[in-house]
Amino acid sequence: MCALRVNNYLLFSSYESEINVFYINDLITKSKDHDVNKIKINPKKVNTLKGHIGPIPKIIQYESKKIISCGWDETIKIWNLDKFSCEDTINNVGDKLINITLLKDKITLGVVLNYGNIKLLNLKTKETLLILNGNYFIYELNDHRIVTIFHETYLKIININTKRPELLYKTSHDSKISGFVQLDDGRLITCSYDQSIKVHGFVSKRDKSKDAEDYIYKYGNDCFYITYKYNNNDIQEKDYEF
User: Fold this and answer.
1) Is 52 part of a structural domain of the chain?
2) Fewest CB atoms within 10 A around its CB: which of 52, 93, 134, 136?
């Protein structure tokens, strides 16, 4: 379900509740004529991490020799790749876990639940810091606010400190957003099931891109609303609340 490289290891999670670990260092051989198309990778399986009950949709790197996994068994596990063992478990997170993201403070974990809600957890205390109404993705911006997908084609930006949304932005995508990433200059790139990729300058209420005439702006309840004009399915402000 998920692949991850950590140092000299290549890890694969599975539907069978296991994480398979392969060693890949010094096992890349190149043909004599140095043709990159003939490069062969011969990884060797060295261990299997067992502990989850059911599929493991996501694994991420935690520290230099540790990973974090989430499972449909409602648990999060921290694994030590030196000992190939589970160091810690967070139980009963709530419903099947779909995705996890480690924030830049290296302590806060964003966890996406099957029914769409997102939890922020402290990995040290195991405390739930915040619950958000999102949609399967969570991403930390350069200024440490977080962004998630909302109502399929909206981006919701939340200030973790105030625990409130600061911006709700209706993109011009015609179908569900499937992922996003932020550029160094602050703009967001989104991809969608409508087979398009779009670049957005609306990442704060202080920044409006040159195509601003295509959008409607409103401010209220401590939140800035940006809506694409040519969409006839605008949701009401009451739907923006947690």
Assistant:
1) yes
2) 136
How many Å is the Cα radius of gyration of the chain? 21
The Cα-based distances of 159 to 59, 164, 190 in angstroms read 26, 6, 20
Residue 154 is classified by DSSP as E
- Number of helices and strands in the chain (H, E): 0, 23
This prediction has a pTM of 0.75
Confidence (pLDDT) at 241: 43
Closest CA to 60 of 103, 116, 24: 103
pLDDT tens digits, residue range 150-162?
A: 778 888 888 888 8
Number of other residues whose CB lies within 10 A of the CB of residue 18: 15
Q: Is the pLDDT of residue 11 over 90?
A: yes
In a 10 Å sphere around its CB, with 0-12 CB exposed, 13-18 middle and 19+ buried, how is residue 92 labelled?
A: exposed
> How crowded is residue 80: how many other Cβ atoms within 10 Å of its Cβ?
16
Say yes or no: 122 and 167 in one domain: no
CATH number at residue 96: 2.130.10.10
pLDDT over 90 (residue 189): no
Token pair of 72 as six digits: 């449909």
